Amino acid sequence: MHLDDRAHTLLTTLVSQYITQGQPVGSGTLAQQAGLKLSPATVRHVLADLEHMGLISSPHTSAGRVPTPQGYRFFVDAMMTASAFETIDDSTFRSSLQPDSAQRLVSSAVQLLSHISKFAGVISTPKRSQVFRHIEFLLLSPQRVLAILITPEGDVQNRLLELEYPYQTNDLVAAANYLNTHCAGRSLEQIHYQLSQELHSLQERVTFLMQAAVSQNNDTPSAQDDAVIVRGERHLLDVSEFANDMNRLRQTFDLFDEKNRLLQLLERTNHAGGVQVFIGGESDVLPYDGVSLISAPYTASSGVIGVLGVIGPSRMAYERVIPLVDVTAKFLSRAMGHKDAQEP
């Protein structure tokens, strides 16, 4: 959407003033803040055009104007084109996000992002590795076995196996020895195929145990819940747009509970790349009016492994929050990359 310089200046000034003050912006205040030598009639004429274009609206008669989702979008796009962002002090991120386990790193990153932004922080965790470096079996009862997989990244995955037949310790040792000797470093899909084709020489019960271990998937509800972490939801209670609108607050908290839906929203950033801004009410991506998500992917040596972001009101200081999300993603990526480089 193209605006002439006069309309561009008035719109961006209006959005900036509304974000700062939280009140509808009148034409007199707008002309003064924009620094344009325009008559009140001219300002009102431009505002009428912007309202006709769907970029601003009048909540009450003669109460001034507020930006619509489309107005916020124009404001954010103009800001990103001009790179008109605040400079972020990265010392806290540098000291807090040091190489560590993936679980602790993502938890620290989302907690830090929420704390500094004063909004809710969200992050999709790295997908569970489908390759193992080492496996052990622990006999819990004759028909219940705990499979312990250690990934190449050093993370530990526990899988509870409910088995049809009773097993003894020597069966578990035989299965673990075979998998560690012949299958370490391969994907679970490759191992499953190998087991179905080549293990005629082993006892059937041992083969069944190994197939059960590598056939477990990550599509269970608990795995989906673990795939997204939300921190700092309570910060939204201090935001007037949520505190004064219980329906909006309830819709946003419902989104936090629907982890699969939230994960799908974050994955849109994964495909797009770079910092993305989703403005509520602009499209069906984030249908809740007055709510925005700013997100960015983070990487490891293998490429993009997750997405982090901030959920807050559409009336937020984008010039501060956008670079804040970007810096967090970059330092988390750096820590993840160093962690991978240190793995044996």
TrEMBL record:
SUPFAM superfamilies: GAF domain-like, Winged helix' DNA-binding domain. One of its GO terms (molecular function) is DNA binding. One of its GO terms (biological process) is negative regulation of DNA-templated transcription. Gene3D superfamilies: 3.30.450.40, Winged helix-like DNA-binding domain superfamily/Winged helix DNA-binding domain. Keywords: Repressor, Stress response, Transcription, Transcription regulation. It comes from the Bacteria. InterPro entries: GAF-like_dom_sf, HrcA, HrcA_C, WH-like_DNA-bd_sf, WH_DNA-bd_sf. Belongs to the HrcA family. PANTHER family: HEAT-INDUCIBLE TRANSCRIPTION REPRESSOR HRCA. Negative regulator of class I heat shock genes (grpE-dnaK-dnaJ and groELS operons). Prevents heat-shock induction of these operons. This is Heat-inducible transcription repressor HrcA. It comes from Hydromonas duriensis. The gene is hrcA.
